[in-house]
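REQUEST
  id: r-88c1
  op: predict_structure
  target: Iron ABC transporter permease
  payload:
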Amino acid sequence: MTRRSSPHRGGGPARRRALGGAFLVAALVAVCFASLAIGTADIPLHTVWHALTTFDPADPDHIAIVLKRLPRTLVGIAVGVALGLAGTLAQGITRNPLADPGILGISQGAALAVVAGIVVFGATQPAQYLWFAFAGACVAAVFVWSIASRGRDGATPVKLALAGAAVAAAFSSLASGVLIADRQALDTMRFWQVGSLAGRGFDVLLPALPAIVVGAVAALTLGRTLNLLALGDDTAAALGVRVGRSRLIGGVLVAVLAGAATAVAGPIAFLGLIVPHAVRILTGADYRWILAYSAPAAATLLVAADVVARVVARPGEVQVGIVVAVIGAPVFIALVRRGKAATL
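RESPONSE
  id: r-88c1
  status: 200
  body:
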């Protein structure tokens, strides 16, 4: 009896993770096909398949799928992967279940830099926002780290969260003040500021893609380190982790991933916050699996939200950042009420 039941008990979490991974892959494929098929005019799935496999440049449906909807879908996948990993890293390095790139001030730093680009340098297109947003995210991360590092204990989780919240509030206030004083900048900024995939293509994605790929690969290697940090700084140090250095590396990766994602699609709230909590239901507390599952889960949620954004206000569409917030707020409240976000 013991020998039969022991493998069953040991295989339970592994089977759950395997089934969960298969479900995430299937869901991502499904929402990608939906993203290619659904828009201002719906296109049958068999036409989508033919456009991908035997592209006909004379067919207007094929042109719409390959030249318009496919780049937008790939942008959604890349931004979702970046934000899912950035949120997981932010929660891991701060040991704060409510941490995400927003609470660390990184998204607000990117937004403030874009405002500066619009007002000072006359930037008007998403492709022009890219480097401003990326630079602003990096500056915000350095600023938060320098504030949190002061004092005898260095950059502790509490100090990182407090410094990030203060920097986020300051940068957000500065950006709002500039926009209120400049009506033209406000009109240019308001569509980017809520987060959107509309009009985003390879011209915006390709410059940011190297940062997303390198940041994602590096983030996936930090699972063991985050597991040890979750035990507490003293225990992690006793097990050989260089705590300050590990937090610095994690913070840099959060800035790279969140900065690149924000540069491409604008600030998208809740995605990096709720996805790590949701995947913990499947993975447990092991950050190696949380990181691996958060990437496709966040991509699936963002692409699905973009599909919903095209449907709810036809013939126009709603910005995807609004849809993610509408979906994310009640989901996160439900997770908190069930106790899933109480601890890391």
